[in-house]
Amino acid sequence: MAEQVFREFFPLFDGVLVERNAAETVTKGGIMLPEKSQGKVLQATVVAVGSGPKGKGGEIEPVSVKVGDKVLLSEYGGTKVVLDDKGYFLFRDGDIIGKYG
Questions:
Q1: pTM confidence score
Q2: By the 8 A CB rule, do 19 and 43 touch?
Q3: Under 8 Å between Cβ of 77 and 91
Q4: Separation between Cα atoms, residue 9 and residue 30, nearest integer Å
Q5: DSSP 94
Q6: How far, in Å, CA of 23 to CA of 41, rounded?
Q7: Cβ contacts of residue 65 below 8 Å, gap of 6+?
Q8: Are strands 15-20 and 43-49 parallel, antiparallel or unpaired?
Q9: Parallel, antiparallel, or unpaired: how do β-strands 96-100 and 70-73 relate?
């Protein structure tokens, strides 16, 4: 069964729902960054995962991440999903670059 945080949303197959980390608004030197120059945040936390895709023999292959993992994302990709007035992104397991920390 898929692990999830939300009772009303279950990603299908190799779907991974992530919450992007907040963009840094101040540099280490204390300079405030305008919104345009902040760039896209590529780090996120996994909040829900699907059960995994079906393999050639019909068996389910597990997804490579689990709820709570910190992941790196590609700059472009993912589908924006709004749940409980909060924005999340839905990626396929293969679109996630890797895990960290």
A1: 0.76
A2: no
A3: yes
A4: 40
A5: G
A6: 6
A7: 16, 46, 49, 71, 93, 96, 99
A8: antiparallel
A9: antiparallel
